[in-house]
């Protein structure tokens, strides 16, 4: 019993040391269908970690049967190219845009086509182990044309993060 009591502070200290130190703000999360079937969706958002040093999104996940991954869009030989990424650097204190024709989250395996207004939940996991739940609302680029990207009100600006509704 004495050994167990003596170990408790060390175990507690180890648990505290292992806790993620990064706080992350995710804003302007939205999604759009990427194919005619409507079962593959790209998610876009602004990610700002508050941390010391450097940080990165190291993975993204979604509840089965969905799969989620990080991608980079580019144009090569007059064709759109999607390249899987192992991580996305997110400099501390600086907004990182996941955007069309750039880095983004790809979600596939949707059992039916998405409709405007539906939501797609994913979890971003960072290098230090911090995890942020993000729910992006499905919209279109046309719907965003008249929306100020720095103050997105309306459908594209709504999101839920860790159970809190954000505008």
TrEMBL record:
Cited InterPro entries: LpqE-like, Lxx211020-like, PCuAC_sf
Name of the featured protein: Copper(I)-binding protein
Annotated PROSITE patterns: PROKAR_LIPOPROTEIN
Organism: Sphingomonas rubra
Source species, domain of life: Bacteria
Signal peptide range in chain numbering: 1-19
Keyword Iron: no
Record's keyword terms, sorted: Signal
Keyword flag Signal: yes
């Amino acid at each position: 019993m004495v050994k167990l009591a003596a170990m408790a502070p060390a175990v507690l200290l180890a648990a505290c040391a292992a806790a993620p130190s990064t706080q992350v703000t995710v804003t302007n999360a939205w999604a759009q269908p990427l194919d005619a079937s409507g079962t593959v969706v790209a998610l876009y958002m602004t990610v700002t970690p508050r941390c010391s040093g450097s940080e990165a999104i190291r993975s993204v996940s979604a509840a089965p049967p969905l799969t989620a991954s990080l991608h980079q869009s580019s144009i090569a030989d007059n064709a759109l190219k999607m390249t899987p990424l192992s991580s996305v650097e997110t400099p501390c204190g600086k907004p990182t845009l996941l955007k069309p024709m750039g880095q983004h989250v790809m979600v596939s395996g949707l059992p039916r086509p998405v409709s405007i207004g539906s939501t797609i939940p994913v979890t971003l996991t960072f290098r230090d182990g911090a995890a942020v739940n993000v729910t992006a609302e499905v919209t279109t680029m046309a719907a965003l044309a008249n929306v100020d990207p720095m103050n997105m009100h309306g459908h594209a600006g709504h999101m839920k993060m860790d159970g809190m509704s954000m505008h």
